[in-house]
Structures are given as C-alpha cells and as structure tokens.
Amino acid sequence: MATDYGAVWSELDRSLSSIEAVLDPAAKKAEIAGLEEEVARPDLWDDQENAQRVTSRLSALQGELERVEGLRSRLDDVQVLIELAQAENDADSLAEADRELAGLQKSIDSLEVRTLLNGDYDERDALVTIRSEAGGVDAADFAAMLLRMYLRWAERHHYSAEVYDTSYAEEAGIKSATFAVKAPYAYGTLSVEQGTHRLVRISPFDNQGRRQTSFAGVEVLPVTEQADHIDIPEQDIRVDVFRSSGPGGQSVNTTDSAVRITHLPTGIVVSCQNEKSQLQNKAAALQVLQSRLLERARQEREAELNALKSDGGNSWGAQMRSYVLHPYQMVKDLRTNYETSNPDAVFDGEIDEFLDAGIRWRRTQEVAA
C-alpha cells in the first residue's frame, strides 16, 4: 500500500503543534532574553550558587527551544521534499522522505514525553541510591551492574554524574551507592526507575553453575534547592568522620575525610567520601540528607491528602523490572510490559525506551486515579 504522505505529515504536524502549545516557545524566548541579561552582568559570579542556577537554567531553556524549533524546521523541510518528489515522481526522494518521517515520528514522540514531566520537582537534578537486596554476592554484583547502567545512560546523553558514596561488598559488587545526575528533568525522568529490580542468571559465583535470582533496590530523589527550606538544627544531627576506602578496604585517602551524618529524629543515615576534604564531604552529605528529608515530607503530605496510589507503582520496594539472562535473554518492565531481548544493550545504558514507557504509564495511572 502506498504511503499517504499528506496524512502522515498532517498527523506529525498536529502532534508537534500540541507540544508547542504546552512548551510555549515564545515564553521560553522571553525567559532566555532575561537570563541572558543576568549572565551579562559583571557581578554574576560573586554569588556562585546563583550563577550556576542561572547559567544552568539558561542552557536548559536554550536546548529545549532548539529542540522544538529544530523539529519544526525539519517538518517544514520534509513537506517541501514530499511535494517536489511527488511532482517529479522521484522514487529516491520519496524513500528519503519516508526515512525522515520515521525519524521525525520518533523524535516527536520522545519530546511528547517531556511534556508529561510537570510534577513539582520534575525539572530538578536526580539523587539516585542503589542497594543490593536479597541474593547475597549476586545481588551485590547486580547492584554494581545497575550503577554502571545508569552512569552509562548519563554518559550517552552527556549528562554530568557524580558518585557521592560507594559501599563495596566483601567478595564482589557493592552494598550501596549514591550518585547525582545533573541535567534538566533528571529527577522527573529517572523517578520511574524507583523500585525493586530483579536479575535471573547462571551465577558466576556458584561453582555448581546454578541459576540464581537476586534483587537490587533503586531509590530516586530530587536534589534540594535553597527554596525548599529544609531546616536541620545542629542538635538533630550526629557527624562522624572516617577514612575513605575503596574495594577490599584498600585506603584511598590518608586522612579521615569521609563523613557520615545521622539525622537523630528520623534515624536517616547518609555518607559521602567522594571529595578530598572533610568540609566538602560534609556539604555533599548534608545535601543528600536534605533530599531524603524533602522526600519524606512529600510522602507525608501525600499520605495526609490520601494521594498515595493503592498499587504502590512508584513506592520503594515495588518490583518493577526483570532482567533475565538464562534460560532466555529478556528485560521486561512489569508495569508497562515494555520489553527487549537485548539485555547487553540495556546494561550498557540503552534505557530510554524503558524511561519513556514508564513516564507514559505513570501519567495513565495519575489520570485514572
């Protein structure tokens, strides 16, 4: 059946117009102009925290505007290409138009997902913690595999990622790790990864070659900002310092620069050993603690408003994805049913389709609630 190019183009045009109505390019241009004036001020960097906020916001808006305008330009160009190809009955040009329409469909679908990220904290950086759960050494190894997966995803998108703390397991893998992904909408995007991940494989640590099932938990929090007003009195925390260490307990720092903070009212414990100085580690650990307290406050508000979903779709401990390496190869999201038969690619950071499906699924749950 011949492709109805006009109908395909019109559908893409409707989708993009709907996205433009939500993202409002004109408003973004106005905000960009204002931020550019701030960036041009000679005293901008007198307040480094504010300067970083301004420049980060400006970069994010410019990137988003370029993305929308680029898609509109491509859509206009392919319309011209289709008209010329049809007028001249040019099969090669029509084939090129087919490829471009398919590419535009994928890009517009991806941008449409961005319009679904409109939660209170969705625009923020993400603070991710991975913990090994049931499964012994296989679970610790699985947690390390997930850590690499997310860091590779960030690397593929040229996002900044900083590991704050890693607790290594005795034999292999990690007990836990906490890292930040610094990118526009990192929290809104990665928050759908929260829950319990399950791995089924022939254990490389079992000398009898038996199949092993192991679990790892992923927690995703928004990074706090000054406007959050999370007050942490000094008397509510206990600060302990210790020597930073790497795998196997090998010392990587000759001073007691690593910091562990215990929030006494809640019992929340956080630590950071990534920085070289004790002051820097304490500041990073306090930021992690603030993010945990912010999330705790959010959950308490939701409980008061009876807004927690009965299915626990985004709650800690909800099993949400299976990674099967034996007797067949498959990664499947148990909420969205999205799956792939290429787990190697997934563990190498190719998780965008899972993220998009998760964001769409979450929206359907919110609408249905």
TrEMBL record:
Name the major location.
Answer: cytoplasm
Q: Print the keywords alphabetically.
A: Coiled coil, Cytoplasm, Methylation, Protein biosynthesis
Location in or out of the cell: Cytoplasm
- Cellular component GO terms, alphabetically? cytoplasm
Identify residues that carry N5-methylglutamine.
Q250
What's noted about post-translational modification?
Methylated by PrmC. Methylation increases the termination efficiency of RF2.
For this protein, what is any one GO molecular function term? translation release factor activity, codon specific
Q: Where are the coiled-coil regions? A: 51-114, 269-311
Cross-referenced InterPro entries: PCRF, Pep_chain_release_fac_I, Pep_chain_release_fac_I_sf, PrfB
Q: Which residues form the Prokaryotic-type class I peptide chain release factors domain?
A: 243-259
The entry sums up its family as follows: Belongs to the prokaryotic/mitochondrial release factor family.
Q: Which HAMAP family does the record cross-reference, listed alphabetically?
A: Rel_fac_2
Q: What does this protein do?
A: Peptide chain release factor 2 directs the termination of translation in response to the peptide chain termination codons UGA and UAA.
Indicate what this protein is called per its UniProt record: Peptide chain release factor 2
What's the name of its gene? prfB
